[in-house]
Specification:
The complex is a heterodimer of chains A (274) and B (283). Chain A has 12 helices and no strands. Chain A has 274 residues and is mainly alpha-helical. Chain A has one domain. With 283 residues, chain B is mostly helical. Chain B has one domain. Chain B contains 10 helices and no strands. In chain B, helix 1 packs across helix 5 (107-140), helix 2 (25-53) crosses helix 3 and helix 6 runs parallel beside helix 10 (242-274). Chain B starts with a helix and ends in a 9-residue tail after the last helix. Classes of the chains: A mainly alpha (274), B mainly alpha (283). At the A-B interface, helix 2, helix 8 and helix 9 of A face helix 2, helix 3 and helix 7 of B.
């Protein structure tokens, strides 16, 4: 009887996650101009940085570093605006209260948003990477494709787990959500070494950067894809990302429950225009 | 005239409140410092790491070129962001556009006031970024920035700043016009315009390194001349004659004003005709 109920709940939540995924994929791709913009705009910025390296006559692998960084930033932007700030948008549009009265876990909603975001962003990130590689003629040296895929999978999982944690924190925000999401763009691009290898940054900056999963993911993916290294060279990055996932997922669940209760007590879950 | 001045003044005040009253002044200052400073740190580290990797010496002249370009680009990003978001915010989010439209002051003057508030915010960001930028790079990282701060040509700087800001506000009117005719494109418009100006405007590298078609685009953009003159005012060196740059800046400014206000007027006419002034977008 108990097993049957757990099974029913699981199916129920998976259906909710799929429904939210479907909305995200459908909504994210229904406007062709959004799709094109999300592919072109990152290329503009990363091109500027590539031309800077060309001006400085830096080795060609730095162009590859920038392209991989620009590609992964697409995921970070998605985590920030479409995961972290999503409950704020939902509150403003009146959807949040509907989520809360349905008999499903909030984590199922977040899972659906994350999976939908991953599908959408992977499409865009692939286009950014292919365009960058073709335009700037970056040679890829991939000796261990499965290690590359594992690194990518762990990076994305850790990033979206962080997004789930932020989503619960942003739940209480009014306009601060917008400013906070804005604030977490360039500083994270800088700290994670999106446009240069983290190993060349000062020790103090590297220490702060190690609090961000993107730092390890970027470092690992660059080593495998641009420098042709393998598992034995990037295992520390893989371990770090796994630790992030193990910590962040339960923390997200805890934070979500806590913030929901706090929101109910303070009457802020349905408050608009804060 | 009184109505115009009052509209602009009130719009600046409203803009200031909307932008700042979600936080106390200290938190607000931190928010307005961190993002542009992080942008400066990115290009600063690209400079240091790229120079080291190429085995060459750090070029203080190139650092100063990039430092000035990236810092003054704050005006572009801030004005574009403010002017692109305000139609969406006032019409769809806070639903006050129809009231502003019905008030005695013109919407165009209200937008100007909001844009000027963006200029004020950008100035705060610029001053903080310049100060912290010098402290971080020159003070902590020993990168020499060859700027003689007492020898800055303030007259030229001020003139250039006024001309540049007029240009950027005129571009912002184009964004307002497009936003009033469309829905939910405000984010991408800001990013498109800022991205194009950042890449082709000679912000962090000389446009001469771009392909020929890129150089053509660069020479048609007012920001290219704005930044050249700004660098001349700070560094007293320029690849071209500064009077010619001023002339090109004025010419591109006039063209931008004509296009900006033309697009805005047409958009307002069509918006009124098609009932878009109070259009809702799920809020």
């Amino acid at each position: 009887m108990q097993v049957q109920r757990v099974r029913e709940q699981l199916i129920h939540n998976l259906r909710a996650a799929y429904a939210r995924l479907w909305v995200r994929v459908k909504g994210g791709n229904r406007e062709p101009q959004w799709l094109i913009a999300e592919m072109i705009i990152p290329i503009l910025t990363l091109s500027a940085y590539i031309y800077m390296y060309k001006t400085l006559e830096a080795p060609p692998e730095f162009t590859g570093f920038v392209i991989i960084g620009g590609t992964m930033i697409a995921f970070w932007s998605n985590v920030l605006w479409n995961m972290s700030a999503q409950f704020y948008w939902e509150k403003e549009t009146g959807n949040l209260e509907i989520y809360f009265v349905t008999p499903i876990s909030r984590m199922a909603i977040l899972l659906g948003m994350a999976l939908g975001g991953i599908v959408n962003t992977t499409l865009r990130a692939t286009a950014i990477m292919v365009a960058g590689i073709l335009v700037f003629q970056v040679p890829l040296v991939i000796n261990e494709p499965f290690t590359a895929l594992l690194m990518f999978f762990l990076t994305i999982t850790a990033l979206y787990a962080l997004g789930m944690l932020f989503a619960s924190l942003f739940l209480m925000y009014g306009r601060e959500a917008w400013h906070t999401a804005n604030l977490l763009q360039e500083p994270v691009h800088f700290l994670s070494g999106s446009y240069f290898p983290k190993s060349l940054m000062p020790d103090m900056v590297q220490l702060v950067a190690s609090l961000i999963p993107l730092t390890f993911g970027l470092d690992g993916i660059r080593q495998i894809v641009i420098l042709g290294k393998g598992f034995s060279d990037v295992w520390i990055d893989l371990v770090a990302l796994t630790v992030f996932i193990i910590i962040l997922l339960p923390l997200a669940k805890f934070a979500l429950d806590y913030m929901e209760n706090l929101g109910k007590k303070e009457g802020r879950l349905t408050l608009r225009w804060q | 005239m009184n109505t115009v001045l009052r509209t602009v003044k009130q719009a600046i005040w409203v803009g200031w409140k909307v932008e700042t009253n979600w936080a106390d002044p200290f938190v607000f200052s931190i928010y307005y410092l961190i993002r542009p400073l992080a942008g400066l740190l990115i290009v600063g580290f690209i400079f240091i790491i790229g120079s080291t990797a190429s085995g060459g010496q750090l070029s203080p002249e190139y650092f100063a070129f990039m430092f000035i370009g990236n810092s003054f680009f704050i005006y572009v990003s801030q004005i574009m962001m403010t002017m692109s978001m305000l139609i969406h915010d006032d019409r769809a989010h806070y639903e006050v556009m129809k009231h502003i439209y019905l008030a005695p002051g013109s919407l165009a003057w209200y937008i100007l006031g909001r844009a000027l508030n963006g200029v004020m915010n950008a100035t705060v960001s610029l001053l903080l970024t310049l100060g912290f930028g010098v402290a971080v790079f020159q003070g902590l990282m020993n990168v020499q920035i060859p700027i003689n701060w007492s020898g800055i040509d303030f007259g030229l700087l001020l003139l250039n700043l006024v001309l540049g800001i007029v240009c950027f506000i005129a571009m912002g009117y184009v964004l307002c016009g497009i936003n009033i005719m469309t829905s939910k494109v405000q984010f991408m418009l800001t990013e498109y315009v800022s991205g194009i100006l950042y890449l082709f405007g000679g912000v962090v590298f000389l446009p001469e390194i771009l392909p020929q078609w890129g150089q053509t685009i660069s020479s048609a953009l007012p920001i290219t001349y704005f930044l050249r003159i700004m660098r001349y005012a700070f560094l007293h060196q320029s690849p071209s004659v500064v009077e010619m740059d001023l002339l090109y800046l004025v010419l591109t400014m006039i063209a931008t004003i004509i296009v900006g206000f033309g697009v805005f007027r047409i958009a307002m006419y069509k918006a009124r005709r098609d009932g878009l002034i109070d259009k809702k977008e799920e809020y």
